[in-house]
Amino acid sequence: KKGNYDHFMQKEIHEQPHSLTTTMRGRLKDNSVVLGGLKEHLKTIRHSRRIIFIGCGTSYNAALAARPLFEELSGIPVTMELASDLQDRQGPIYREDTAVFVSQSGETADTLLALEYALANGALCVGVTNTVGSTLARKTHCGIHINAGCEIGVASTKAYTSQIVAMAMMALAIGADRISTQARRQAIVDDLSNLPYKISEVLKLDGEMRDLAESLIDTQSLLVFGRGYNYATALEGALKVKEVALMHSEGMLAGEMKHGPLALVDETLPIIVIATRDGCFSKQQSVIQQLHARKGRLIVMCSEGDASSVRPVESCKVIEVPQVADCLQPVINIIPLQLLAYHLTVQRGYDVDQPRNLAKSVTTQ
Ligand code: M6R
């Protein structure tokens, strides 16, 4: 049921304070994280030589957002695999690996084939899914249900943020034996508890994003630049725009800007730069300056109160979002981009919940 909303995608975007609450329910205890489905396997994961994240589309992007925290808290190298590419290459997987499969539906054909492959190679296989009883949930050795509730819109929104939070909790559980990161873990747990409230705050940008969509309705193309924790936000924001608004959009690593993308910059091409506060902030400030020097049509996303530090000229559009721990910021930053994709789609007159040529669950190769 869509309730008071016009579309499932809209409903699912606005449901995120609740879906994130259910993702965390019963799992944050006495300032630590308890994940029943992983408890017995944490020791094996801590001793693995490599963690490999495997998924497709939005699920891959969620894993990419969680990757830096995994590396930081576990100290284990983390690699990323698009499920189809892993199969195409028959990339090496070993008994000493932990392979983490991320899939909202738990039924994506490419992800399940990659799972068969990892099982055959003896890796410990962990599932992160929204679907209890799915093939992924049944065939993996252990895992976490993200408990985001049923997602109907083909564009994944609430599952994305719940996947990131579930994987952040997983990173906290894996790193729980390390004294050196105790204060950091405590700060993240505190911010996890506040996250649903911060999401309701960022959802207030709805009207602003509707107006921004109006100003972009006729553009041919949209770029999104991110880095660090928000490289994934750039990829996921662009995926949403192309998937539902049927507008060409690319998410790019800002660090790669001078290695090609800079040639595209002119007065007409809108570029969203994600420049919220984290260890990459000053680098993003310099990216903004360089894009401005080439007369780029900039839209900057920054932390609340930072507008004057990021805006190269008064006329530059700025989206201010609440600040949380750097590793959780992707959960906040994707929301305005989900809203933008939603409004662009409605204004361009396309089908929001059932985009052209796409299926909710891709069960064939
Ligand atoms: O069910 P899954 O998470 O395995 O699906 C993977 C992708 O097909 C899916 O995330 C797709 O990219 C979304 N429709 C994007 O919104």
From TrEMBL:
Pathway noted in the entry: Nucleotide-sugar biosynthesis; UDP-N-acetyl-alpha-D-glucosamine biosynthesis; alpha-D-glucosamine 6-phosphate from D-fructose 6-phosphate: step 1/1
Keyword Disulfide bond: no
One biological process term in Gene Ontology: protein N-linked glycosylation
Enzyme class: transferase
GO molecular function: carbohydrate derivative binding; glutamine-fructose-6-phosphate transaminase (isomerizing) activity
EC id: 2.6.1.16
Highest taxon above the source species: Eukaryota
Catalysed reactions, as listed in the record: D-fructose 6-phosphate + L-glutamine = D-glucosamine 6-phosphate + L-glutamate
Keyword Ligase: no
Domain SIS intervals: 41-181, 212-355
Keywords, alphabetical: Aminotransferase, Glutamine amidotransferase, Repeat, Transferase
Protein name per the record: glutamine--fructose-6-phosphate transaminase (isomerizing)
Organism: Zingiber officinale
Portion held of the full protein: 313 to 677 of 677
